[in-house]
């Protein structure tokens, strides 16, 4: 095997360059993975658009990926060469209060692949090979495609969100935003048995896809009053729960859509400050909670794929080579583009 590889390196907003780098060798307790597919996440696109300490260049982006194990380091006994895998991209300390409770998503010492979170640049998967500790690896069944396996990280995020504050008698849930995260949430809400799933967005093609994913009702908020429409579909009370997968600009609308005593869940990575009326929360007994990453849900979703209880390949709309990776980002950066999920193949 050659000792060099190609990597798509982020050099700052609007700048991605293909570079030649050394192939990493697995150390004790690590495995080497030959990358097959990498999905472009909204956070990757955010780095491409705006400078941020979370993505300090030079940096290899990409934390949603799949591939095969090509080497195992000393001491690795539960994994083997040739095994199909993906990776939980959270690099945890495994020593803090939260990690010891199985709540690694709350670890204050965590780093994350494809970011500079935690003050350390941790290269991601937009390169031919990666090495990771064996405990980060999530095995994938042979009947699961590389395309689907490269969506398991957002599946973990969205399954955790779909379960967040779900009540036993919940009948109606609104999803704000029909991008990749919103659409996966729809799939999981229906799998969890929610009777009435309502999706609001401003792009008709995405709303049509939401219908295909199982949404019972769709609302184009550019064409009709979304709050009025939700109230009409819920006997005037509002939904049991509203999940905001769009952004901070819809936080107040989520409060208007939810019933008294209901729950608003924010999963969108919102970075801007927003003004809210606390009396909306107190006076109506609302819950307002955040949903961040996952604990066991990535493995749960992997099992659902293996059992053929979940299909996600239908969300992939385009595939690019690593050499044309910048073109993929440019397309996604185009206003009102109709892409849903774009992948890079290696």
UniProtKB/TrEMBL annotation:
Which Pfam families does the protein's record reference? ADH_N (PF08240), ADH_zinc_N (PF00107)
Query: Entry's SMART domains?
Result: PKS_ER (SM00829)
Source organism superkingdom: Bacteria
One term of GO molecular function: zinc ion binding
User: What is the originating organism of this protein?
Assistant: Hespellia stercorisuis DSM 15480
Family membership noted in the UniProt record = Belongs to the zinc-containing alcohol dehydrogenase family.
- Name of the protein in question: L-iditol 2-dehydrogenase
Needed cofactors, names only, are: Zn(2+)
- Which keywords has UniProt assigned to this entry? Metal-binding, Oxidoreductase, Zinc
What sequence ranges are listed for the domain Enoyl reductase (ER)?
12-337
